[in-house]
């Protein structure tokens, strides 16, 4: 009886976690959030669905093109909306909040104009299917959870490489990393591209579950931020844990209370968690000797 | 004091200003004279912003009406021209938009789209005595005492709710119904009307009412609750195609396919790409009787012709039925009839003629107005049609097969 609750939690939680991870990837070297991230996820889903529907290309080729295009847009976002602000004396304050929000609005408006409001069906990659099997689980749901865990594991391995450690060094102390000859701008640019790859994958993987539509970005960005905050900003393992936790809470609330209370219950739970552990589930407190 | 010197004295400045104030209106008078050669209609729609492309096709019927009217000689011999204003689909933009139209001397307005937008614009068109017809279905917008210059040529959300409840109770004889509605003014109004009518007809309340937020990412839990409550039929009040797709897919996955009735946007063709056809076989949408056919009854010729024209509009592809339910085509023809009856374009005379409209045969039904009611469509013109009939060759464009017994 509770298997469907678990399946629902793991499916939705994987997507929330992936969006949260894409937020994290940017935060680490830049201390900024890309408010257009949800729109990149949405664009990933719509672009892949459009390529599949209009150009009839093979699924994996369509997904590859989507990842390249979205990571290119993420690179452009850094170039136009973030780097000029961060390069100002004193880091440019919080101007990136407005500039990345503007990028998000531009993307949403452009997609709305070009594609229109109708949702599109994004099929799962062959040979997977969204049809429920005997246990009430589809092959796509199993692959989705495994795929998201694999993506996060790959990111963790990347952060152990020389470049990854340089990014972590910037996150730790930007000024000190400059003394070590690390170029924060180059690594920030690389992180934006990487976040674009994760956002595109989040969109492509969310499409078969939530459909590819203009409204997809906003709702997933809220859940992604929730997962990032609860898991601990900067901790990918924490975000994946929090993503599953939030989705599980949603599913239990829907079953035990009423589906309409899902958002309220998960927000209260995250707030309570942050009151007890301000750094999130697996985040680290920043102590600095002055 | 001598004011004949060459410098500008205060008295001379005032004299020039007075002369200038007399001269200033002259270009406007001249422009007004030119404008009188055409019949200008304010055209409020978003031309920028996220909703610009999705709202654009909703005005297709109005543009077709203008082409037809102009081809037939215009209104009182004047060519109808539109004065387009961009409202960005925002209620906040309406005051400025209405002011621009009023300043330009426009007295007749088509648009905006959406109940919040229409309500916002009515706050300004009403005192400005501008005759208006927007796309909104809230029942009180047809209250002529409250909004004497607004004319509603479409059904109200209450009528939609009642039609769905009546079919479920009287035709399908279902007593355990479930309601699945979005948490919006539309969902609440339609849901309340459904509950009221169902109670009136059966003496019972719905077995389960599920209200979901507009941000819901999964409707399976709501559908499960309806199934668990033993519902034998479901009435859905949802405007977002993503949510509609999610709900029907959840039903299909649970292998639970009860009769479902819902809003006119169930006729959106994109639903067939999202949901297996089997899940839509027992689904009906509220629709205008004039757009439906049966084995014995054809769609009126005028509707068939308009359906062909709408089907030729590129942007209307897949949403023909929704566009066919928009009021602009009928409103412009009604306006023409009223102006020609009044033999004047003066608002007071045209309003008097519109208030006297009785039994006007429009494409959406038979329209009746009075001094106290501008809700033009009666329940006899509201019916139900099969969603799956979109695949029937007889259902070209906006046409759909009427639900059995409706």
Structure explained in plain terms:
The complex is a heterodimer of chains A (290) and B (406). With 290 residues, chain A is an all-alpha fold. Chain A has a domain at 26-217. Helices cover 73% and strands 0% of the residues of chain A. Chain A has helices at residues 3-30, 37-55, 59-86, 95-115, 139-158, 162-172, 174-179, 184-210, 216-231, 236-256, 262-276. In chain A, helix 3 (59-86) packs across helix 8 (184-210), helix 9 (216-231) crosses helix 10 (236-256) and helix 10 (236-256) crosses helix 11 (262-276). Chain A is globular. The termini of chain A are far apart. Chain B has 406 residues and is of the alpha/beta class. Chain B has two domains: 36-136 and 328-363, Rossmann fold (3-Layer(aba) Sandwich); 158-288 and 382-401, Response regulator (Rossmann fold). Helices cover 40% and strands 16% of the residues of chain B. Chain B contains 15 helices and 14 strands. In chain B, the strands form four sheets. Chain B has a six-stranded mixed β-sheet, with helices on both faces. A four-stranded parallel β-sheet of chain B has the order 2-1-3-4. A two-stranded parallel sheet of chain B has the order 10-14. In chain B, helix 5 (94-103) crosses helix 6, helix 7 packs parallel to helix 8 and helix 9 (220-228) packs across helix 10 (241-253). Chain B starts with 9 loop residues before the first helix and ends in a 5-residue tail after the last strand. The interface between A and B is medium-sized, with 34 and 32 residues.
């Amino acid at each position: 009886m509770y298997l469907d609750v678990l399946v629902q939690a793991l499916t939705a939680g994987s997507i929330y976690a992936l969006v949260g991870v894409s937020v994290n990837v940017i935060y680490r070297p830049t201390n900024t959030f890309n408010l257009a991230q949800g729109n990149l996820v949405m664009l990933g889903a719509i672009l892949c669905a459009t390529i599949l529907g209009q150009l009839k290309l093979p699924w994996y080729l369509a997904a590859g093109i989507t990842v390249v295009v979205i990571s290119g847009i993420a690179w452009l976002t850094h170039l136009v909306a973030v780097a000029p602000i961060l390069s100002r004396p004193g880091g440019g304050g919080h101007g990136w909040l407005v500039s990345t929000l503007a990028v998000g609005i531009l993307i949403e408006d452009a997609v709305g104009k070009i594609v229109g409001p109708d949702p599109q069906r994004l099929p799962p990659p062959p040979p997977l299917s969204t049809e429920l099997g005997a246990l009430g689980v589809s092959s796509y749901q199993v692959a989705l959870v495994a795929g998201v865990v694999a993506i996060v594991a790959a990111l963790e391995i990347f952060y152990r490489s020389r470049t990854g450690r340089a990014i972590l060094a910037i996150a730790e102390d930007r000024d000190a990393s400059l003394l070590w000859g690390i170029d924060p701008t180059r690594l920030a640019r690389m992180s934006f591209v990487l976040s674009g790859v994760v956002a595109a994958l989040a969109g492509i993987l969310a499409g078969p579950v939530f459909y590819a539509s203009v409204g997809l970005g906003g709702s997933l960005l809220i859940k992604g931020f929730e997962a990032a905050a609860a898991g601990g900003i900067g901790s990918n393992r924490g975000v994946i844990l929090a993503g599953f936790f939030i989705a599980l809470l949603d599913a239990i609330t829907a079953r035990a209370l009423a589906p309409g209370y899902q958002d309220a219950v998960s927000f209260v739970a995250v707030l309570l968690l942050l009151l007890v552990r301000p750094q999130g589930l697996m985040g680290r407190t920043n102590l600095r000797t002055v | 004091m001598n004011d004949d010197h060459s410098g500008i004295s205060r008295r001379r400045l005032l004299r020039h200003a007075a002369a200038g104030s007399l001269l200033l209106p002259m270009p406007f008078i001249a422009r007004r004279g030119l404008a009188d050669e055409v019949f200008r209609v304010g055209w409020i729609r978003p031309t920028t912003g996220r909703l610009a492309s999705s709202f654009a096709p909703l005005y297709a019927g109005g543009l077709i009406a203008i082409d037809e009217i102009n081809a037939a000689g215009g209104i009182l011999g004047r060519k109808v021209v539109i004065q387009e204003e961009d409202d960005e689909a925002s209620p906040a933009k309406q005051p400025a938009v209405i002011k621009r139209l009023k300043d330009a001397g426009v007295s007749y307005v088509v648009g905006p789209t959406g109940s919040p937008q229409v309500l916002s614009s009515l706050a300004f068109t009403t005192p400005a005595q501008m005759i208006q017809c927007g796309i909104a279905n809230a029942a009180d917008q047809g209250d002529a005492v409250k909004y004497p210059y607004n004319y509603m040529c479409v059904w109200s959300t209450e009528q939609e709710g009642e039609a769905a409840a009546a079919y479920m109770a009287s035709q399908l004889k279902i007593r355990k119904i479930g309601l699945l509605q979005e948490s919006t003014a539309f969902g609440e109004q339609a849901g309340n009307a459904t509950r009221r009518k169902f109670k009136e007809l059966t003496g019972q309340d719905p077995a389960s009412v599920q209200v979901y937020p507009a941000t819901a990412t999964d409707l399976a839990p709501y559908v499960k609750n309806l199934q668990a409550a033993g519902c034998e039929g479901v009435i859905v009040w949802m405007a977002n195609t993503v949510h509609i797709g999610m709900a029907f897919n959840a039903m299909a996955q649970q292998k639970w396919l009860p009769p479902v009735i819902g809003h006119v946007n169930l006729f959106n063709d994109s639903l067939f790409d999202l949901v297996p056809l089997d899940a839509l076989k027992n689904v009906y949408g509220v629709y205008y009787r004039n757009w439906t056919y049966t084995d014995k009854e054809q769609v009126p010729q005028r509707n068939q012709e308009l359906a062909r024209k709408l089907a030729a509009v590129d942007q209307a592809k897949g949403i023909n039925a929704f566009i066919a339910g928009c009021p602009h085509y009928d409103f412009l023809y009604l306006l023409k009839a009223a102006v020609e009856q009044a033999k004047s374009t003066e608002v007071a005379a045209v309003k008097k003629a519109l208030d006297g409209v009785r039994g006007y045969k429009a494409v959406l039904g038979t329209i009746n107005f009075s001094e106290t009611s501008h809700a033009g469509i009666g329940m006899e013109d509201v019916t139900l049609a099969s969603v799956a009939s979109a695949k029937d060759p007889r259902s070209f464009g906006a046409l759909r097969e009427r639900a059995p017994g409706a």
